[in-house]
């Protein structure tokens, strides 16, 4: 395809990448003071535009809980940016290593990669742009951002915010449709962070491979909840439903199915219903309960229920006020338990990304572990229980991006813990120092010894000295 055939946003991407690469080379390493100043600007954007962020997300979703927005898309972001600001000087320090010769020196220096591309999703559009920028900027990089076309008001607000605080040679935003995102992945960035679905990640990875661009992929998958026979079921149900109803379950870390000990389904169902009623006495017009992002996703979720019902699952709608959702404009969907859906049901195959929660039972903990391990590795695993030996067994015998014990999603809010997936749920991690490292090049630097042995160690002709050295060194 010729350059003339590109759309205006695609040409703008090409231009911005050229501008930022040139600025990176011309300016050289950004000082700690400059990085802190950029982080301060980002913090200021979050603080000054918090009301605008609430309004934009409410417009995009049809209804988006204002408090949920402030918690997830503002408060959490400010925490990430402040943590990076407070710690980046320490992270930037070279790390020394021992050498064979006393007067040699070996160290690792952390060098900015250059220009990082951020492809962000629609579910938490500000969090999943500005929180990664904490690590990107702390590491001394520039960034170009492509927000989701599914949240146009939020994307346009992000563009205006960044343009008001940063020169285009520092951080820039390009908006546009899926074709722009596809072109984004073909460009020779120094690193790309993609957050989204596994299916789209495969396209991003294939495109990036043409330029050997390294990737951080933050995906999702079906994050399981294992409830032990030793767990207080009411507490587990309340904590699971808190996260499952946050953003109407449109969270990559949302519990995707629950594994309960046999006989515990009625107790869990009753406790889940009570938890939902306590949080949302009504749902249909409740400003705290978020809508499904668009009609396509709403129809997809309804189709999951129809498919599971047709395949024999019991459907339990948690609708405290018994409201009629058949006629509405806001695309609200009540929290719904799907009990004993078979494995071939679509709801058991796909990441749900909505307020629907399948429930299955197990007889022994190893059966639950085997069920998890028979599926792609999830972004998160949640274990509820009071048996430390059983907890250790679950941790040792399963692999997931992260784990929260006796709660859901809490590990993602611990800023000093790495956040990322494994296998089908992603590759690489960020948050805290992990973000600094993800967007840095660890450059090995070695200063050779002045000893005669160092000069002649590898140089032929090889004599008795090197042979004796090798004979002694190559030993058990």
Automatic annotation (TrEMBL):
Domain of life the protein comes from: Bacteria
Domain Aldehyde dehydrogenase: 12-445
Catalytic residues (UniProt): 218, 252
GO BP terms, alphabetized: aldehyde metabolic process
One MF term in the entry's GO annotations: aldehyde dehydrogenase (NAD+) activity
Iron listed as a keyword: no
Name of protein: Aldehyde dehydrogenase
Any single Pfam family the record assigns to this protein: Aldedh
Any GO CC annotation of this UniProt entry: cytoplasm
Record-linked InterPro entries: Ald_DH/histidinol_DH, Ald_DH_C, Ald_DH_CS_GLU, Ald_DH_N, Aldehyde_DH_dom, Aldehyde_DH_NAD(P)
Keyword NAD carried by entry: yes
């Amino acid at each position: 395809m010729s350059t003339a055939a590109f759309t205006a946003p695609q040409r703008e991407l090409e231009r911005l990448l050229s501008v930022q690469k040139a600025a990176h080379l011309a300016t050289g390493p950004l000082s700690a003071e400059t990085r802190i100043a950029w982080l301060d600007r980002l913090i200021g954007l979050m603080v000054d535009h918090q009301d605008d962020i609430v309004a934009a997300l409410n417009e995009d979703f049809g209804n988006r809980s204002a408090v949920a927005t402030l918690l997830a898309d503002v408060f959490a972001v400010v925490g990430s940016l402040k943590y990076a600001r407070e710690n980046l000087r320490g992270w930037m320090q070279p790390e020394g290593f021992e050498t064979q010769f006393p007067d040699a020196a070996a160290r690792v220096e952390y060098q900015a990669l250059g220009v990082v591309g951020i492809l962000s999703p629609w579910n938490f559009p500000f969090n999943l742009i500005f929180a990664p920028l904490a690590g990107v900027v702390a590491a001394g990089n520039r960034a170009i951002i492509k927000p989701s076309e599914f949240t146009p008001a939020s994307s346009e607000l992000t563009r205006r915010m960044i343009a008001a605080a940063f020169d285009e040679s520092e951080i820039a935003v390009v908006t546009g449709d899926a074709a722009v995102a596809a072109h984004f992945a073909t460009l020779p960035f120094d690193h790309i962070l993609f957050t989204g679905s596994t299916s789209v990640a495969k396209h991003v990875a294939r495109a990036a491979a043409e330029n050997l661009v390294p990737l951080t992929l933050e995906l999702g998958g079906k994050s399981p909840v294992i409830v032990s026979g030793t767990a207080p079921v009411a507490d587990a149900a309340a904590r699971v439903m808190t996260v499952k109803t946050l953003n109407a379950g449109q969270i990559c870390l949302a519990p995707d199915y629950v594994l309960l000990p046999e006989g515990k389904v009625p107790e869990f169902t009753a406790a889940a219903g009570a938890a939902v009623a306590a949080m949302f006495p009504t749902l249909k017009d409740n400003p705290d309960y978020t809508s499904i992002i668009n009609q396509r996703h709403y129809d997809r979720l309804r189709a999951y229920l129809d498919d599971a019902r047709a395949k024999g699952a019991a459907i339990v709608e948690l609708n405290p006020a018994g409201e009629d959702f058949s006629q509405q404009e806001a695309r609200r969907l009540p929290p719904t338990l799907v009990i004993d859906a078979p494995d071939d049901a679509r709801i058991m195959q796909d990441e749900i990304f909505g307020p629907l929660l399948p429930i299955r039972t197990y007889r022994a903990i190893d059966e639950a572990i085997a069920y998890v391990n028979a599926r792609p590795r999830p972004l998160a695993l949640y274990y509820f229980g009071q048996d430390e030996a059983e907890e250790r067994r679950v941790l040792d015998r399963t692999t997931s991006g992260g784990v929260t014990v006796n709660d859901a999603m809490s590990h993602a809010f611990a800023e000093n813990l790495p956040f990322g997936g494994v296998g089908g749920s992603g590759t690489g991690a960020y948050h805290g120092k992990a973000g600094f490292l993800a967007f840095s090049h660890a450059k090995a630097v070695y200063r050779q010894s002045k000893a005669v042995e160092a000069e002649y160690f590898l140089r032929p002709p090889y004599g008795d000295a090197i042979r004796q050295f090798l004979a002694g060194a190559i030993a058990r």
